[in-house]
Amino acid sequence: MVSRFPVPFRWSRGLLRASSCCSRGISAMAGGEEAQLGGFLDYMDVLRNYERSGVPRGAGTDSGDGFDLGRMRRLLRRLGDPHTHYPSVHIAGTKGKGSTAAFLTNIMREQGYNVGCYSSPHLLTIRERISVGRHGGPVSAASLRDLFDLAKEAIDESIESENGSLTHFEVFTALSFLLFSRENVDVAIVEAGLGGARDATNVIRNSELAAAIITTVGKEHLAALGGSLQSIAVAKSGIIKEGRPVVIGGPFSTDIEQIIRDRAFLTQSPVISACDTGVRSITRCIGRDYAKPYQSCDIVVKISGDMPLSVELHDVKLQLLGDHQRQNAVMASCTALCLRELGWNVSDASIRAGLEKTQLPGRSQFLTQDEASVLGLDGAAILIDGAHTEASAKALSDVIKTVEPEGPVALIVGMASDKEHLAFAAQLLSGRRPDVVLLTETGIAGGTARSMPASSLRDIWTGAALGQGIECADIGAIAGDEAPTVNIDHLAPAAGTDKPGLMLIGCGATPFSRDLMKAASQLLRRADGPGAARGGGLICVTGSMHMVASVLQQLEQ
Q1: In what order do the strands lie in the sheet with 88-92?
Q2: Within the chain, what is the greatest distance between any pair of CA atoms?
Q3: What's the predicted TM-score (pTM) here?
Q4: Distance of alpha carbon 325 from alpha carbon 498, whole angstroms
Q5: What residues have CB less than 8 Å from 184, skipping those under 6 apart?
Q6: H helices within 267-358, ranges in order?
Q7: What Pfam families does UniProt report for this protein, alphabetically (predicted)?
Q8: How far apart are alpha carbons 358 and 296 in whole angstroms?
Q9: How far apart are CA 59 and CA 63, in angstroms?
């Protein structure tokens, strides 16, 4: 029997009490509010940042090579152990963490709970990583600055006592926990950064853990997490705690799911699977609301056993597109039902409303026509998606095929150097074959050390295309927003045959900007096909959340 949390779940506060935490939407991120963070950002910038430099081999494993959770615990102790002041839902997984966290956060907010949500990475401002309250939005710059000013002495002492080894992620995670304590949250939704067992967020004890979620297990950060899918599964299952329920997503291969279930057996933790035979979900159709697509889904959960869960939702309009996002919605729904079984007040109506209101920048995001016009791309359909793994490339390919089944397609791709570039390319080429592929470079976490050269990406994509029997025409480097002159016959099928035309492939001569999107639009406008008449087909920017951030930043500017 799983013990229930008293609701509300409260302790006396540690370091300080809260003032009102004003939050604002993403549209305010690039404005004057960021100037208030100057000293804080400078301080954080000198800390070791593995998002910028890359994670060391074995750092996420529960071994001698793994990150030292002891220093995180010592830092939190100096801050009054704020993470022990509220219950948390802890989420790990290769893909789907952020979307599942967003779905669940909105469900709980719809029910009226004061929710803290911590996720990573961010797109335009580090404030996006923390949201607090009943309405959401990034934490205000003033609240984050005041929090840092108050905690700085304890952080300085901790950095000195740890010989400077505290990292950017550890310090910011500690600050988020402190803010949640100050703001008296009813529950925190906490996304792990890397793996699980040795992640800085894995200081949550079973006495504070409401539930754990493991979304998927894939090959990202393979070296840092032990070198195999099995070692990655072991790392992620490290967030499972004694006697606390775990919701698993998947679908997983038999051996990977067994690793997770073995851990749950050892900790006597109930397992709720989003792939249980009692769980059914389906996308019935793709609709449009003010020209933006949504998927209409049915989600039915009928699970019996030690923790019976039940909900039946029809015609749920998800703004996040794709089968993978429907699965994330199922995981969030199962977790909400799990919390209901543990004594939380969560209605079916709140589950529906929370799912329908969830949207995340950079996840299968179609820009509005007004936004396309701001970029100088009137009439173009523009999709931005932070896909950067083989699995997310397949999900993106499926979205393109479902939402934009006709017309020419251009892909603009920039990636970090430590990704599976060939597998990523192969997945996107195996779906709706693009007419144009333009490779580029973008900064990763504010630096260029991890950026994959565009010329190297071009070689990889050319090889992947040839491996699938796709003939390419190299159009060379593109400078500015002028597309090179090419024979449009290359894009058309050979006369009298069903054989597709050549795929045009080229490189941006400068770091990624909207100029490359304009060049892609010109190339597509020259293509014959149904999409040409309606504004030049689909332009998809992908390969990295940093590519997405670049587009959003240019919109703000």
Answers
A1: 130-133, 115-118, 187-191, 88-92, 209-214, 246-248, 271-273
A2: 78
A3: 0.90
A4: 34
A5: 10, 18, 86, 114
A6: 323-341, 348-357
A7: Mur_ligase_C, Mur_ligase_M
A8: 14
A9: 8
